[in-house]
């Protein structure tokens, strides 16, 4: 490596570090390729989710927080992770790295903002399911305004935390005290909410139909939550350990892949565990194919009509020429 700077790479909301001498060029290329491929899948998957929700009124009205979760996860794949790849490769001299003084804080903000907003909406979903399980009548009467206010607050809080982190600069220990307690609180809320939900559904729900429906939905969001916990906990552990001793670059980037992978879980989970989502996606796909087929048929009919008109014109022109010749011959 040509870069001999000892300035650490700021791994965005993680400040775990590795100097250039610790990593080979091939290793950096491998990590960049891994992050880039993950970003593509995350972006496409969550964009698909947003499209299905946006075009399906029933899903759009019933799953307000899930839509915002998909938006947060899309931000991870479309902006945060690609910028992380650019900074990572540029820092290790894979390409020309310009404007680092601007890109470092921008990348850190996007990384923390998208990641924290994602887990914040997971917590909101957990609380929503808890409210629906304990107070179903009140839940069905909940107004859109309440969802809108809570959504606005979650986005504002998610933006405030990385702003404070950037203000603190390179003070790694203080920065951990900014975002880590909030994330741990959200994880605690998620875990506690689903424990209460499962107890209520298993032991205190009398109607079999409602029990089956609630259980299926709760299984879906519980799997989603467990996957998110699996993605976040290693990341938190690595950051905590890094306060006391250096962490290997493999551990840093592996937990970072898992951390970004949290945004990769949702598309596949929705497709596998939500029948209404699968049906809505199928309807959109079939309508798209049907419209494409209809356009091809319409074009084919227009082509046939055009050919018939050309043939008719050619036939009329030929007959006109013959009549003119006959008239001339008669005159002679």
UniProtKB/TrEMBL annotation:
Residues 45-270 form the G-protein coupled receptors family 1 profile domain. It is found in: Cell membrane. One of its GO terms (cellular component) is plasma membrane. It is a multi-pass membrane protein. Keywords: Cell membrane, G-protein coupled receptor, Glycoprotein, Membrane, Receptor, Transducer, Transmembrane, Transmembrane helix. The keyword Calcium does not apply. Pfam families: 7tm_1. It comes from the Eukaryota. One of its GO terms (molecular function) is G protein-coupled receptor activity. The chain crosses the membrane at residues 33-53, 65-88, 108-127, 147-167, 179-205, 217-238, 250-272. PROSITE patterns: G_PROTEIN_RECEP_F1_2. Signal peptide: none annotated. This is G-protein coupled receptors family 1 profile domain-containing protein. It comes from Desmophyllum pertusum.
């Amino acid at each position: 490596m040509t870069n001999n700077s000892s300035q650490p790479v700021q791994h965005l909301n993680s400040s775990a570090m590795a100097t250039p001498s610790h990593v080979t060029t091939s290793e950096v290329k491998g990590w960049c390729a891994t992050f880039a491929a993950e970003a593509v899948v995350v972006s496409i998957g969550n964009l698909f989710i947003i499209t299905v929700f946006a075009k399906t009124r029933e899903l759009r009205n019933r799953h307000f927080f899930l839509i915002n979760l998909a938006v947060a996860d899309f931000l991870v794949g479309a902006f945060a992770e690609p910028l992380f790849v650019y900074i990572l490769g540029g820092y290790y001299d894979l390409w020309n790295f310009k404007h680092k003084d601007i890109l470092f804080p921008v990348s850190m903000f996007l990384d923390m903002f998208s990641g924290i907003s994602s887990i914040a909406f997971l917590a909101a979903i957990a609380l929503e399911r808890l409210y629906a399980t304990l107070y179903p009548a009140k839940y069905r009467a909940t107004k859109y305004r309440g969802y809108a206010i809570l959504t606005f607050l979650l986005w504002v809080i998610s933006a405030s935390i990385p702003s404070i982190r950037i203000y603190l600069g390179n003070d790694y220990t203080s920065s951990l005290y900014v975002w880590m307690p909030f994330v741990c609180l959200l994880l605690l809320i998620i875990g506690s909410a689903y424990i209460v939900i499962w107890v209520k559904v298993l032991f205190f729900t009398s109607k079999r139909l409602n029990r089956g429906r609630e259980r299926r939905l709760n299984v879906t969001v519980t799997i989603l939550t467990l996957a998110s916990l699996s993605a976040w906990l290693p990341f938190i552990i690595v950051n905590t350990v890094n306060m006391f001793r250096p962490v290997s670059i493999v551990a840093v980037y592996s937990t970072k892949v898992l951390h970004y992978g949290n945004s990769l879980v949702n598309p596949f989970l929705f497709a596998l565990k939500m029948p209404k989502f699968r049906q809505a996606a199928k309807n959109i796909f079939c309508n798209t194919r049907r419209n494409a087929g209809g356009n091809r048929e319409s074009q084919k009919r227009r082509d046939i009509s055009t050919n018939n008109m050309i043939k008719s014109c050619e036939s009329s022109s030929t007959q006109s020429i013959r009549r003119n010749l006959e008239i001339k011959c008669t005159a002679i």
